Structure formats: structure tokens, C-alpha cells
């Protein structure tokens, strides 16, 4: 028996990735069988429609820009975007695409990367957040602080930093163990998040140390008011299996640009002010603790 090549469409339908052919305006001319598996639409449901209609609204502008670059002669191999599946959920896609000017069509091969993107997001989250409290970690804090400084410099809207240290936490942790300490830190993080203004950020930067970034905070007096509010959020008794504990914090303030114009300078100044507050209870910024944290 003489071997012969099967029709091209039969070969394309065997591919796990979806092959899509569109014209210059993005109207679909052909899709392979895997298109329905990935996007939910059968060929007769999608042919004649604009492929851009299926793109996630947040990704349409960049997708159309990429399509123009491909039609300008660029070979696209690793462009990622999101599409809306027929049943309504988002699908992450990595495209390879090429424009064939002699035929007036753009050919794209769609490889679904939804699970890969989910794993990447999880790794990104773990790299930028504290595993115990879920708050941003020191690395994420520096990124956010750098952005906040740039915004404050551009708009003149002000920026303040609060460096918080939980008073008496070490004694509680040593006496009742790390499990109790972890529960106390988790509760402190929750209360600090609830006490912040919209647009503020709090990060955990050490064992019992937290930093709050306050964009738009005009001066030290305004920052002091936020700090006092955070201390008020911490003070109600925290009931754990080990007992009832009262939280409080020593807080240092640094303001941009008076106390520094970069993350390191602001963090150093706020850290120093926190230690002054801790030593003097009611130090120069008035934010030392009113009493030691202790177990009831």
C-alpha cells in the first residue's frame, strides 16, 4: 500500500494546541479541533467572529498591539494573554503567531498555560509575602515603598512610614511557646490591616516588627494620628488557648522627604524613632507604649 499524507486539517486536529487562522481584521477563518477543548467554542460557533471578542477585557489593548506587531513582520513566540472561556472563566494562553502577507492571514498556535500561570502566581505570592501572616514581606515592602516615594515626589501628596515593634512579645513567646507567639502575631497583623486607611500598606519585616506605608500622609502629625489609631486597634484583649493577652506597640515615624528620600533612609529613620519611643515610653514622637504587654 502506498503511503500518502492525510489532509492538513486532520493533522491539525490531532494537535493538543489550538491552531487559529484570522484575517487582517481579526475575523476567524479556521480553528482546529483543540480550540473547543481550550476555549469551549465549537468551530461553527467561532468562525466569522472577531477573535478579539474572546480576549479578557484587561488584555485587549496589549493583544491588539501584539497583533499589529505580528502583521508588521515580527514573529511572536511567547506572547501571553487571557481569554474568556465559553462558560465564563478565564483561560491563560501562550501564543506563537505569524502574519502571512501573501495570503492576508494571521496564523496563531494557542498553548493553554492556565495551570502553569497559577503555579507562577503562587510562587510570586510566596516570594513577596510572609507565610505566617500573609502580609507583604520586606522584599515587597521595598518595592511598594519605592513606588510610593516616586508617586509622592511627582504629586507632592506626602508620604509617611511607621515602624512598629510589639511590646513584650518576646516574653510571651518565651513563656508560652512559638505556637502562642505565632497566633499572637497573626492576630496583630489582622488588627493592623483593619486599622489602616484605604491605600495604606502594612508589611511584616521581622519577628515582631511591622512597617506601615502611608501614601498621601501630609506630615508627622497626620502620621501620629494613624499610629495612635493602630495602637487602639491592638489594645483590646486577645484571647488565645494559652490565655488572654494585651497587645501594644512602640511606633517610630519617618516622613518623606524630611527624613529621607529613599527606602533605606526612611526605614532607618523610622526604626531609630521606634527605639527612641520604646526606651522612653513617651519619647519625642509621643508614641511609646502606655504600658508593657503582658498576659492576664
**Any idea what the radius of gyration is?**
28 Å
Task: Examine the secondary-structure arrangement and name the CATH architecture of the largest domain.
Answer: 2-Layer Sandwich
The name CATH uses for the topology of the largest domain is Alpha-Beta Plaits
Oligomer: single chain
What is the total domain count? 2
Shape: elongated
The CATH superfamily of the largest domain is known as: Reverse transcriptase/Diguanylate cyclase domain
Taking the alpha carbons of the first and last residues, their distance comes to: 91 Å
User: What do the pLDDT scores average to?
Assistant: 91
Helix fraction by DSSP (H/I, runs of at least 4): 40-55%
The CATH class designation of the largest domain is Alpha Beta
Main sheet record: 5 strands, antiparallel
Detail the poorly predicted runs: 282-296
Order of helices and strands: HEEHHHEEEHHEHHEEHEEEH
Describe the strand arrangement of the main beta sheet, using strand numbers: 2-1-5-4-3
SS content category: alpha+beta
Question: Counting H and I runs of at least 4 residues, what is the number of helices?
Answer: 10
Amino acid at each position: 500500500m502506498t503511503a500518502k499524507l492525510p489532509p492538513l486539517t486532520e493533522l491539525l486536529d490531532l494537535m493538543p494546541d489550538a491552531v487559529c487562522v484570522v484575517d487582517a481584521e481579526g475575523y476567524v477563518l479556521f480553528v482546529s479541533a483543540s480550540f473547543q477543548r481550550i476555549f469551549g467554542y465549537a468551530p461553527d460557533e467561532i468562525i466569522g467572529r472577531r477573535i478579539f471578542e474572546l480576549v479578557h477585557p484587561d488584555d485587549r489593548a496589549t493583544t491588539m498591539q501584539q497583533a499589529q506587531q505580528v502583521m508588521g513582520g515580527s514573529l511572536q513566540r511567547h506572547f501571553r494573554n487571557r481569554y474568556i472561556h465559553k462558560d465564563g472563566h478565564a483561560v491563560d494562553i501562550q501564543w506563537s503567531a505569524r502574519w502571512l502577507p501573501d495570503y492576508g492571514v494571521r496564523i496563531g498556535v494557542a498553548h493553554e498555560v492556565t495551570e502553569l500561570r497559577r503555579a507562577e502566581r503562587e510562587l510570586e505570592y510566596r516570594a513577596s509575602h510572609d507565610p505566617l501572616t500573609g502580609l507583604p514581606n520586606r522584599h515587597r515592602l521595598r518595592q511598594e515603598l519605592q513606588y510610593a516615594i516616586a508617586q509622592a515626589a511627582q504629586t507632592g501628596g506626602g508620604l509617611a512610614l511607621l515602624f512598629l515593634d510589639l511590646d513584650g512579645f518576646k516574653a510571651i513567646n518565651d513563656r508560652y511557646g512559638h505556637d502562642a507567639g505565632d497566633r499572637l502575631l497573626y492576630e496583630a497583623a489582622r488588627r493592623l490591616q483593619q486599622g489602616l486607611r484605604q491605600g495604606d500598606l502594612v508589611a511584616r519585616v521581622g519577628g515582631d516588627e511591622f512597617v506601615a506605608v502611608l501614601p498621601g500622609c501630609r506630615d508627622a502629625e497626620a502620621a501620629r494620628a494613624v499610629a495612635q489609631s493602630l495602637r487602639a486597634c491592638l489594645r483590646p484583649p486577645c484571647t488565645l488557648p494559652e490565655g488572654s493577652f494585651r497587645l501594644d506597640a512602640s511606633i517610630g515615624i519617618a516622613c518623606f522627604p524630611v527624613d529621607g528620600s529613599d527606602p533605606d533612609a526612611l526605614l532607618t529613620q523610622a526604626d531609630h524613632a521606634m527605639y527612641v519611643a520604646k526606651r522612653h515610653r513617651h519619647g519625642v514622637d509621643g508614641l511609646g507604649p502606655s504600658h508593657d504587654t503582658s498576659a492576664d
